[in-house]
Specification:
three-stranded antiparallel sheet
């Protein structure tokens, strides 16, 4: 059975080698580097068995990217603490949405109105819209990329229609088809990235109920999420153009 390897990081500026990967199942670290092949060098290694392999990597790779703790204790925060981040971020807040639906949307009156009329209303006096408008008016960036299935779920169509309301208060809303997201190797995770230094990882159960949110500030992990953001933004398109594509697909 193949390992579930996640790219951790690299100090290379050119070809991506040497690098570290982490086994998602076992937590083991896989080191990618230049093989050590000179018999005279290998002879100096202690406890080197016939099935072993040695690679050479810069010390900086391990200093910068190797796990700093044997077991990372998740920092779980309340919804109020998460909301506070939207008040205090300095320059950017960005989200990746990958789920096929959210229980909170299905309970929303705007969603029920969408099912009845095909158009979602909204109340711009709600605290969320007021906060985002205040931040974008101050020159800060708020955006997200949403992943949509083919065919889309009702919840995804609702959010696509609702995107015009998000855009009206300054959010940069973009979309990707699921197939494109898979090709870009985007993870099936939902998270906010604040100022490229704080990740708020959102957890859900199988019924799409929001369970909790974990804050991640470990530099190597934050860089990984920033790389995910950059890849998603590179492939995604503005929601207006995507809506036209979705209409043609249907």
């Amino acid at each position: 059975m193949a390992r579930q390897l996640r790219f951790t990081g690299t100090d290379s500026k050119v070809d991506g080698c040497p690098a570290l990967h982490t086994d998602e199942t076992t937590g083991e670290v896989v080191v990618q580097g230049t093989p050590l092949t000179d018999p005279a060098d290998i002879a100096q290694l202690q406890h080197f068995g016939p099935g072993d392999a040695a690679v050479v990597v810069p010390r900086e790779l391990l200093v910068n990217w190797a796990p700093k703790e044997m077991t990372r204790v998740p920092e779980i925060v309340t919804r109020q603490e998460l909301r506070r981040l939207f008040e205090t971020f300095e320059h950017s807040a960005w989200r990746l949405e990958t789920r096929r639906g959210y229980a909170s949307d299905r309970e929303d009156a705007d969603y029920r109105a969408f099912l009845e009329t095909g158009s979602a209303p909204c109340d711009f006096s709600e605290p969320w819209f007021a906060t985002i408008r205040r931040q974008t008016d101050a020159g800060k960036t708020v955006g997200r990329v949403r992943v949509m299935d083919a065919p889309p779920t009702q919840e995804q169509l609702f959010l696509l229609d609702y995107s015009r309301h998000n855009a009206a208060v300054g959010e940069d809303i973009r979309y990707l088809w699921r197939e494109q997201a898979d090709q870009a190797r985007l993870p099936a995770e939902d998270f906010w990235l604040f100022d490229s230094r704080i990740v708020a990882l959102l957890r859900f159960d199988e019924q799409d109920n929001w369970l909790d949110v974990e804050l991640i500030t470990e530099p190597a992990e934050v860089v990984r999420y920033a790389m995910i953001r950059d890849a998603a933004m590179h492939h995604a398109v503005p929601f207006q153009r995507f809506a036209a594509q979705a209409d043609k697909a249907n």
